[in-house]
User: Fold Putiative histidine triad (HIT) protein from Nitrososphaera viennensis EN76.
Amino acid sequence: MMLHQDSNCIFCKIVSGQIPARVVKQNDRAMAFLDAFPLAAGHVLVVPKAHFQKIQDMGAPDARAVFDLVHKITGRIESAAGTSASTIAVHNGKEAGQEVPHVHVHIIPRKPGDGAGPVHSMFKNRPRLSAQEMDALLGKMME
Ligand code: 5GP
Ligand code: ZN
Assistant:
């Protein structure tokens, strides 16, 4: 299979073996490896082998392969890290905090007292939306 890759991309270089990584598991379209600068012990990244910046840029086979790997390894990551929970997150675009512009799913083992919180704790200025505003958003999403 010919892979669309970006020669300047650090995750493409990991996929092609040009730079080393601690690979947890892979399938034909996705790869899971340890984050080199972990937020918690056992922090893993799952990437499509082809270069796409955002979730919606992937085709369905790549999206399925990525989530299949997430599904297969999360239990083992939690038990290896001695936890019974994990935060699974995607920074989908620059404004969301994405620094490496190649889709990656973070799997971060979580423990009581680890100092992090739920996704909700990231948002300090929640909007108050009227029913009309919610309906208008829904309408646009369903179009
Ligand atoms: P982002 O902020 O884009 O969602 O996350 C990028 C992640 O890639 C960070 O958690 C960072 O620690 C990780 N990372 C950056 N460079 C490398 C690398 O060369 N090897 C590995 N294994 N992880 C990396
Ligand atoms: Zn890439």
Notes: Residues 66 and 121 are 27 Å apart (CA to CA). The longest strand covers residues 30-34. The domain at 10-142 is CATH 3.30.428.10 (HIT family, subunit A). The mean pLDDT is 97.
